[in-house]
Amino acid sequence: xxxxxxxxxxxxxxTFLLTGTHITPAVALxxxxxxxxxxxxxxxxxxxxxxxxxxxVEKEEITRIGAEFIPISFAKLNRFIxxxxxxxxxxxxxxxxxxxxxxxxxxxxxxVSFGGYTSIPIILxxxxxxxxxxxxxxxxxxxxxxxxxxxLADYSAISWAKTADKKSVLTGNPIxxxxxxxxxKKIQPNILFITGGSQGSQTINRLVEPxxxxxxxxxxxxxxxGSLDSHSASWRSGxxxxxxxxxxxxxxxxxxxxxxxIFQKSKIVVSRSGANTITYLSYFGIPSILIPLPISGGGxxxxxxxxxxxxxxxxxxxxxxLTSEKLLEEILRINKNYDRIWKSGAENAGRxxxxxxxxxxxxxxxxxx
Length: 369
What we know:
42% of the residues lie in helices and 15% in strands. The protein is of the alpha/beta class and 369 residues long.
């Protein structure tokens, strides 16, 4: 445990260690930390590459707001039996040693985990070292890594009232400053935003490809293709020839400040249904079409999507059997009935959101400092 001298340090001298694979709430919390405690040190330990071997956006996102980034590798927590399990198992000892080494070197006053397999060695190292632990869960279904970490944590925080229990504190899902500011400047929407998240969705990309010429007649289309798309190599230097059309912009990934501007002007969103996407859609009150990832852990994306659908703001389409024609039909239906859908759904969805969630989470963190 920390000695008396360590416990009585001024907050300006303290070190906050954040970890996990969910960067958006970590960015929001970091911004709140710097705002409330200028001069403190914030370190984020995350992935250099995502689970598909592509470059992770975590370093870019966390360093742009002034925090430090340190990469770590650890065994992926596979829920399914596969030949890769042995390879992943062999990474465990090295990951644990790396975690202990980093915690000893950084000397954090608190560790905050946002889930994902890379958080496990840091959580274990923090527990061994007597460092207080806070765990935050973004989805309506506790992820495997966070379920492990929850049992070791001093406090666990949740994002949605629907999942409240006696073991957790409801803080909401932290929202970055750029998103907050964009919401406060909401303007007349004219954008159709198509996204599969930071890694993208090959399924969604293939569905929208044939109908882009039609969509661009109705909307200005922003398309986040993600690193998984086979076209992404050519898109990094611009759009492919077939996609050099008016009213269309694509990118492998849009940084948070750009995403904020896109959501600010979005009329309709077509997306997967990760927790952060659901948070943004609810916060801005944007009618949407959600296509849940079928293999998401514990079916979390389906649960997330259904939560927003219950407000009347979203339509859920299962990807099995979904066609480009069906997707286009649904987009145009929402566009035609936009005012009715927005009026009935936006207020209901807004009730799901705790807008000062980053402050509430930091209040919880401050309890252990």
